[in-house]
Amino acid sequence: MAAPTLGCLCRVPRSGLWPRGLRAGRPGARGILAAPRARGLFKEFFPESGTKTELPDLFDRRRAGCSPQTVYCGFDPTGDSLHVGHLLAVLGLFHFQRAGHHAIALVGGSTALLGDPSGRTKGREALGAECVGANALALRRGLETLAANHARHFADGRPWGSFTVLDNAAWFRKQQLVDFLATVGGHFRMGTLLSRLSVQARLRSPEGMSLAEFFYQVLQAYDFYHLFQRYGCRVQLGGSDQLGNIVSGYEFIHKLTGEDVFGITVPLITSTSGAKLGKSAGNAVWLNREKTSPFELYQFFVRQPDDSVERYLKLFTFLPLAEIDHLMQLHVKEPEKRGPQKRLAAEVTKLVHGQEGLDAAKRCTQALYHSSIEALEVMSDQELKELFKEASFSELVLDPGTSVIDTCRKANAIPDGPRGYRMITEGGVSINHRPVTNPESVLVIGQDILKNGLSLLKIGKRNFYIIKWLQL
Questions:
Q1: H/E element, 53
Q2: CA-to-CA distance for 347 and 27, rounded, in angstroms?
Q3: Distance between CA atoms of 110 and 136, rounded to whole angstroms?
Q4: What's the rounded Cα separation, in Å, for the pair 362 and 451?
Q5: Phi/psi class of residue 157: alpha, beta or left (left: φ > 0; alpha: ψ in -120 to 50)?
Q6: Tens digit of pLDDT for each residue in 244-273?
């Protein structure tokens, strides 16, 4: 297979009509950079100055000859779902798309085989090619769902740029190792690569660093180069722990072409204890419904403390800053209503799961926390299973004269004999949030059995049993 050809780059034209702008790192950064920076979404810019065309001018659509730009962010498929920790980077891409620029979400179907050492004290558990391939497909679908929900529910009437999902396996599969090292490896210097903070931290750790992990930044740099060459991409977006890898890409492209490219970082989201949210830390809030239900995602944001909610509204939503200020003013007067938290949860859940997912989350909230029979009656089997994950699910035939104690015993919810009987008479059992104390009472359709053919049986304070009645 042919070696990668680095000398025949199709260069992105540089217009002499793009004068120097404000330093991107200053608070006065203009246009598309100013709004996300004011929201706290954009953290660091690289390089901040000294380039032929500075970053703010790159996006200034008012200037003659300034065409839409392309921005990318990478997501390694080390798991089969994105999580809340990834969401800020996706939102960063969406902000560029909303301003008329083109966004690329790059799934690392090849780089995930190496494992990114950034921000880690030890190496990732190695994943097989088949597992990575399945994860990559799942991430692509997840990113495409987010893009579709964004377009469907958050359109603002302006013409947007495109949103494209790619996989770097498409070009790395074509490379042969020796050819790649001969043509690409010669443009990297060991001293520079070794100086990266992420590399230094790992080299000092007891476990050290594998060659595969060390080579990761080279592959990420080549991703940037490939997207620059193929799509004219001049900006890479990433978490703040990715700055070293972004710099490697900048240096590689600038050395080969003389052109300037740029990096922008977004903040890392942490738990209340300060730990980074993610799979490795074991505290991920997933965006895949099968791993974290719409109700659980909704509740994660509803439970955010008052000292975080304003920042999260700015980071995770497209609400105007003036509207966020108004929500916070109302919150001061009526904090018990948790208005900002509910709005935050609604906006994020709608982006991740669509209006249907948001409606499901609200139904589950009403059913669980407000004992709403109406909400229970319209909930699907899937919603009930998501809401009561630990609950036993049974399908039973409704025989004539089926009683409360019959139901409890068929569902294996109470012990046999007098003890189970007493649990009912002493008030330890409820059906559809209604306490029942007569074990012999016959189930009533419309009360004990809801219109959707379901009964929610609760034993004690925490033990739930979902019963789907057949042949009603």
A1: none
A2: 27
A3: 9
A4: 19
A5: left
A6: 889 999 999 999 999 999 999 999 887 655
Report the distance separating Cα 188 and Cα 248, nearest Å: 9
Token pair 């299973």 in the structure block, residue:
385
Reading the block at residue 374, the tokens are 């109406």
Closest C-alpha among 446, 449, 470 to residue 397:
470
Measured distance CA(229)–CA(249) in Å, rounded: 13
Write the DSSP string, 327-338: HHHHHHH-GGG-
Omega before residue 267 within 30° of 0, cis: no
Return the pLDDT at 271: 63
Residue 20 has pLDDT above 50, yes or no: no
Asked if residue 439 has a cis previous peptide bond (ω within 30° of 0), the answer is no
Which class for 112: exposed (0-12), middle (13-18), buried (19 or more C-beta within 10 A)? buried
Highest mean pLDDT among 38-52, 177-191, 437-451: 437-451
Report the alpha-carbon distance of residue 420 to residue 403 in Å, rounded.
Answer: 14
Contact indicator for 94, 150 with CB cutoff of 8 Å: yes
The residue whose two tokens read 């509207």 is 323
Q: What is the pLDDT of residues 304-352, one digit of tens each?
A: 999 999 999 999 999 999 999 999 999 999 999 999 999 999 999 999 9
Give Cα 296 to chain centroid, integer Å.
14
- What is the four-CA torsion angle of 116, 120, 122, 123, rounded to 10 degrees? -10
Q: Assign 366 to helix, strand or coil.
A: helix
> How does pLDDT run across 290-317, given as a tens digit for each residue?
999 999 999 999 999 999 999 999 999 9
Q: How many helices (H) and strands (E) does the chain have?
A: 19, 11
Which is it for strands 454-459 and 262-266: parallel, antiparallel or unpaired? unpaired
- Tell me how long the chain is: 472
Residue in 326, 308, 306 with CA at minimum distance from that of residue 316: 308
| DSSP 8-state symbol, 63 | S
Which secondary structure element, helix H or strand E, spans residue 308, and what is its range?
helix 306-316
Kindly report the backbone phi and psi dihedral angles of residue 191, in degrees, each rounded to the nearest multiple of 5, phi listed first.
Answer: -60, -40
Q: At 176, which helix (H) or strand (E)?
A: none
Instruction: Give the Å distances, CA to CA, from 249 to 200, 209, 244.
Output: 18, 21, 9
- Continuous H helices in 46-104: 55-58, 84-98
Of all residues in the chain, the percent with pLDDT exceeding 70 is 88
Residue pLDDT, tens place only, 389-447: 878 889 999 999 999 999 999 999 999 999 999 999 999 999 999 999 999 999 999 99
